[in-house]
Amino acid sequence: MRQPDALADLVARATARLSADPPGDGAPTANPRGDHDLDGADAAAVPERPHRRAAVLVPVLPRAGGPSVLFTVRAAHLRDHSGQIAFPGGKIEPDDPSPADAALREAREEVGLPAEAIRVLGYLDPYLSATGFLVLPVLGLVDPEAGLTLNANEVAATFEVPLSHLLDPSQRRIESAVWRGRHRRYYAITYGEFRIWGVTAGIVNNLQERLFP
Predict the structure, then answer these.
(1) Which residues pair with 122 in a beta bridge?
(2) How far, in whole angstroms, is CA 138 from its chain's centroid?
(3) Mean pLDDT value across residues 158-174
(4) Dihedral of CA 99/202/50/22: which sign?
(5) How far apart, in whole angstroms, are the C-alpha atoms of residue 60 and residue 140?
(6) Domains of the chain, with CATH numbers?
């Protein structure tokens, strides 16, 4: 597939398969995707406390070599998930009109992307983290001319990964670790010096399952 066609194909698939409205208005669904997917349907793997709502932007950029996806490296001094790879995002605030607006706000605050430079393509499936966040991923097409201004309080660096690499099943593996006394399994993707894992890799996996089954 020629590279311009790869971008057009992504947009067409997103338009056909993703909803422009948040699932359940952002409320927990009966069967969200999540860290527990690889551990089976054991209810104990799903946090029982009320879910905290969050939203992330999955930013796709048109590039000459094909679409790429932007990731952030979280600042080392942050209390939660310091130094990990993530999508721009955070908690949904009461005054955010929608989860998509929350994701766009966070993208502006974290990496300086203006909302007008992003075309929202739709929502991926809600993702429930083991820490109790119900994350609503928003797929967005970013103007390649938009510059980045990183908020050093939250983001140490950014990098891009070709979409073709992320969609290659051979680049995605399942790892495991003991966390809070439970043996947990999770997806991991390596790209050069970067290791994408956990919720972020799980959202990438969902992107493929929804758009490129």
Answers:
(1) 139
(2) 7
(3) 95
(4) positive
(5) 6
(6) 3-211 (3.90.79.10)
Nearest by Cα to 141 from 109, 168, 124, 116: 116
Q: Which pLDDT does position 54 carry in this prediction?
A: 93
The whole-number pLDDT of residue 133 equals 83
Measured from the Cβ of residue 60, the count of other Cβ atoms closer than 10 Å reads: 24
Neighbours of 43 (CB within 10 A): 8
